[in-house]
Design goal:
Distance between the termini of chain A: 22 Å
Mean pLDDT of chain A: 94
Low-confidence stretches of chain B: 79-90
Radius of gyration of chain A: 20 Å
Mean pLDDT of chain B: 77
Strand order of the largest sheet of chain A: 4-3-5-6-11-10
Number of strands of chain B: 5
CATH topology of chain B: SH3 type barrels
Helix content of chain B: 25-40%
Radius of gyration of chain B: 15 Å
Number of helices of chain B: 2
Oligomer: heterodimer
CATH class of chain B: Mainly Beta
Number of helices of chain A: 16
Strand order of the largest sheet of chain B: 3-2-1-4-5
Strand content of chain B: 35-45%
Largest sheet of chain B: 5 strands, antiparallel
Number of domains of chain B: 1
Structural class of chain B: alpha+beta
Low-confidence stretches of chain A: none
Distance between the termini of chain B: 26 Å
Order of helices and strands of chain B: EEEEEHH
Largest sheet of chain A: 6 strands, mixed
């Protein structure tokens, strides 16, 4: 299983499936933050966007994601103030430049992105900004892997682990996958040869009946990760239960602002309530994210659900499994 | 979403640096990097440098990729000698 959406896209784009013998099947995991952000979060962001005094600052990937009845893109078309930013610091600058508006940054992403949000929180506090808030939905990769592995229906022989998440958390964060669950792991880079090489390393481990965590992406990933980044995350955030689209509520699988940072918490400031929302009952994204089915197994795929009119999150995100299948592997 | 690109540090002003990404210049935070210096290569995600890339690291990556090329019998694309990657300034 490749866990990371960027790997999914690289594998599809370079046609790596076609180079592998049929016995080796690559299945995609839950590693696209846009895909796993729940409908309830999108609904809350839309509720905020509709307030006259708010500006929503978001990464571009989020604006097309459908909520229950609208998307941020549709709200923008109706006049809501929604700014696409490249960096959380751009959102800080927006707040500084617009003191009369409440700027809410949509803080989504895995461990790669969380240090950036943490630093934005730290900067907002040190600059005494009163109009900058975070709507947090940060997620953690290792707890998600643990839940996948604890599901008896998950049949994964080895893991291609995400390169850039691992830059931050280090290869040691996955030790339990090898030690407790006896699955080989390789942290892989993003070039097609990186991925093929990582698969070869996984196969070598398997043929030697080994279960280890190896690093293929040596140029960027170490055993311990980026300690300065880990300290920043721990300064502002603490683990929490969080909802994953398609997977449901998973214990201790997300990060929320610590109580002493509550002044920055958009949920508290604006009295939002994230109520679980129903998704399209025919959408198979939940099982796609668990690697149980492939997109063509879904009755909506390439019919009702396309990149132009996406229904499920795996089609919305440009790094989603369904989008990758639609673009590169549709028969 | 976890995309990251290599960038070269051109100028440092406190927590921020001017970096060059494939010919483009922009500002980035270097607060997550210890001992960042002008001329260093870093990996950039969402405007933040998340790790340094040393010439030795790059050489090791090239060696791994060369090994992978040998395995699949590909044309050598990554077969740049380590000595050249160290001196190559691009």
């Amino acid at each position: 299983m490749e866990v990371c959406g960027t790997h999914t896209m690289a594998i599809a784009r370079h046609g790596l499936h076609s180079l592998l013998p049929p016995k080796i099947r690559l299945i995609s995991g839950p590693g696209c933050p846009v895909c796993v952000t729940p409908t309830s979060y999108i609904n809350a962001a839309i509720e905020l966007a509709r307030r006259p005094d708010t500006v929503i600052a978001t990464f571009g990937d989020m604006i097309k994601v459908p909520g229950s009845e609208s998307s941020l893109e549709q709200e923008k078309a109706r006049g809501a103030r929604i700014a696409v930013v490249y960096s959380p610091y751009d959102a800080i600058n927006l707040a500084t430049a617009n003191p009369g508006s409440q700027v809410v940054f949509l803080a989504v992403g895995f461990e790669t992105t969380t240090p950036a949000t943490a630093l934005a929180a730290i900067r907002a506090r040190s600059e005494g900004l009163k109009n900058f808030f975070l709507l947090t939905a940060h997620k953690l990769i290792p707890p998600a892997l643990r839940i996948l592995l604890s599901d008896a229906e998950t049949r994964v022989d080895g893991f291609l682990l995400p390169g850039h998440v691992s830059v931050i958390i280090g290869a040691r964060a996955y030790r339990f996958v090898a030690d407790e669950f006896r699955r080989p792991c390789v942290v892989a880079g993003f070039e097609p040869l990186d991925i093929l090489h990582a698969i070869a390393m996984l196969l070598t481990q398997m043929t030697q009946a080994q279960a280890d965590v190896q690093i293929e992406y040596r140029a960027c990933v170490s055993e311990q990760g980026n300690l300065a980044a880990q300290r920043r995350i721990a300064e502002a955030f603490q683990p929490c239960d969080t909802e994953w689209r398609g997977l449901g509520m998973l214990p201790a699988s997300g990060l929320t602002l610590k109580p002493e940072w509550a002044a920055l918490d958009a949920e508290k400031r604006f009295g939002l309530r994230m109520t679980p929302a129903a998704d399209n009952p025919h959408c198979a994204c939940g099982n796609v994210l668990r690697g149980k089915v492939t997109p063509p197994d879904c009755r909506l795929f390439a019919k009702a659900c396309t990149p132009t009119y996406p229904i499920g999150p795996c089609m919305v995100s440009s790094e989603g499994t369904c989008a990758a299948y639609f673009k590169y592997r549709r028969q | 979403m976890c995309l990251a690109v290599p960038a070269k540090i051109l100028k440092i002003s406190g927590p921020l640096a001017d970096v060059e990404i494939a010919g483009n210049r922009r500002q980035a935070s270097i607060e997550l990097i210890e001992d960042a210096a002008v001329g260093d290569y870093v990996l950039l995600h969402a405007g933040f440098a998340i790790t340094k890339l040393t010439p030795e690291d790059a050489a090791e990556t090239f060696a791994l990729l060369r090994e992978a090329e040998d395995r699949i019998g590909a044309e050598p694309k990554y077969g740049i000698p380590a000595s050249q990657t160290r001196s190559a300034d691009r």
